[in-house]
Amino acid sequence: MVALAPPPGESLRRAARWLADHAGAESNTCVGLARLGLRVAWVSCLGHDAAGDRILDALEAERVHTTWVRRDALRPTGVMLKDPAAGVRYYRTGSAASAMGPDLLDGVPAPRARAVLVTGVTALIGAAPHAAGLALLEAGQGLRIVDPNLRHGLWGSDRRAALVLPFIERCTLLLSGASELEEILTGTGGAGGSGESGGWDAAEALARRATAYGPREVVVRGAAAIGAVADGVWTELPIARGAAVDPIGAGDAFNAGYIAARLRGDGVEAALGAGITCGTAVTTVMSDTNGFPRTID
Known about the structure:
Structural class: alpha/beta
Low-confidence stretches: 191-198
Strand order of the largest sheet: 9-10-11-12-13-14
Distance between the termini: 31 Å
Mean pLDDT: 91
Largest sheet: 6 strands, mixed
Shape: globular
Radius of gyration: 18 Å
C-alpha cells in the first residue's frame, strides 16, 4: 500500500506537504531481504492505478520480483496514513489486496521456496486474503514464517487473535511482539496495537507455550530486549535504541535481518543481533524501508 506521512516534527493535520512512500509488512520484509542479497518475490494484488504503479516501481528498484503481483481494474491500491499524534490509520476496505484469494497463488512456486512469509495483516484485511495466507503456509515446504502483526482498524481486528492463530498453527518460525503473543495465547495484552511493547516478564514462558501450537522456533520482540526459543533453548539479547525518527517498520526490518541470518546458517544469537541491527537502522529515517542496511556482518 501507499504510505503518507508528514515531515519529521510536523503533524499530519498542519503539514503543508506529505511524504509519500510504500509500506506493508510483507513487502517491507521483502525489501529488507533483497537488500541483504536474497532472491525474493512479493505476491499480492494492487489496483490498476498510479499508486500501484509507484509501488511496483519501488519494489522492482529494490530487486524484489513482482512476477506474481496481480492488478485489479475495479479496486484501488490501499493507503496508510502515519499520524504522529494518533498512530497509523488504514484505508484498505475495498482495496485490491482485500479481495485477493487463494487463486492468487496459481503458478507461484511456493513449494520450492526456501522460506515463505505471511503476516497477520493479511489475515485481517478480508476473508479471501485470510484464506490466501493459509494456502501459502500449507503450500510451503521450507521455512514457514508468520508474524502476527496484530492491528487495529482492519476488517478482522475485533477478532484478530482468533484469525491469526490458524496461521501460527501452520508455521515453523514465529516472529512476534511480546504483548501480541500474550493476547493470542491468553486473551490479555495487546494494548499497543503492534505488540512490540510491554509484557516482557513472561516472554520466555509465552515463547515456550507458543511452540505447543506448532512452531519449532519462536522469537519474541520487546521494548528493551529480544529473545528466542529454538531447540528448547532460550536466548535473550538487550536492545539499545537511540531516539527514533520513525519507529514504524522496525519489526519488519528485524524480521528480515533475523530471517536472512538464519537462512545463511547463523545461530540464534547471531540472528537476533542481525535483527536488532536492521530494526534500529530503519527507525533513523522517515520511511519503513529507506534506512535498511545492505549488510548484517
